[in-house]
């Protein structure tokens, strides 16, 4: 079967992006809409939900996806106004520094709920509708490079993101008979509004980052491109995979560019 250029298009499909009000989520929502999908943004921040939905012509639904009742309500409204979603991007998440010896039970639970619990809730609810309707689908979970390497000071966050990676594999197997694919995207440093603000404006697209083989941070549009690929029929035989959209960080496994010579060395030195 020859590749057709139309296989990348998402025309006639409904997509849900959680945490789609800003950052990677907004970039992904814009990308899916650009390739023809009708997009619903499920976002807890009223302001960013409204502004982004208006900017890209999406359906904005204020919802906390950590809460099952709000997920059910958001899904019902999405199905009523746009149709049954066949693309789900589980992007919502959060992080804060929490050293192992200082992590409280509440802190652990908060990071689990923000980064892993909602992945089950949203995937389960959307998949149930697809199975009932006999429709195929694509679920895309946003994890992190921290889910595949140690993250001192962020043990709870890293554990949750690692959980997303394993959940992706298991969900892919369980849903494969129903023609629902499940994959994940794992970014490293990605230029978002939050990252730029956190760096005091120092982190820009052309900023040199020796810890990343491509020597720069990623852009939300590069995450969006990978998401569009996984959502489309161009990836029809791909499931259970985690794609590292990270400029080569995962492959590097600790090798760094020497800032003076440009040669690789093991560790920053």
Strand sequence of the main sheet, in spatial order? 3-2-1-4-5-6-9
DSSP summary, beta strand count: 11
**Could you estimate the helical fraction of the residues in percent?**
40-55%
Order of helices and strands: EHEHEHEHEHEEHEHEHEE
- Count every helix, treating DSSP H or I runs of 4 or more residues as helices: 8
Enumerate the spans where pLDDT stays under 50 for 5 or more consecutive residues: none
Cα distance, first to last residue? 51 Å
Give a concise summary.
This protein is an alpha/beta fold. The protein has eight helices and eleven strands.
What does this structure look like?
The chain has 269 residues and is an alpha/beta fold. Helices cover 41% and strands 17% of the residues. The chain is built from eight helices and eleven strands. The strands form three sheets. Strands 3-2-1-4-5-6-9 form a seven-stranded parallel sheet, with helices on both faces. The chain has a two-stranded parallel sheet with strand order 7-8. A two-stranded antiparallel sheet has the order 10-11. α1 (23-34) packs across α7. The longest helix has 29 residues, at 105-133. The protein is globular, with a radius of gyration of 18 Å.
SSE layout and pairing:
Blueprint: E1 14-18, H1 23-34, E2 38-43, H2 46-56, E3 59-62, H3 68-81, E4 87-90, H4 105-133, E5 137-142, H5 155-175, E6 180-187, E7 190-191, H6 193-198, E8 218-219, H7 220-231, E9 242-245, H8 249-252, E10 255-257, E11 264-266
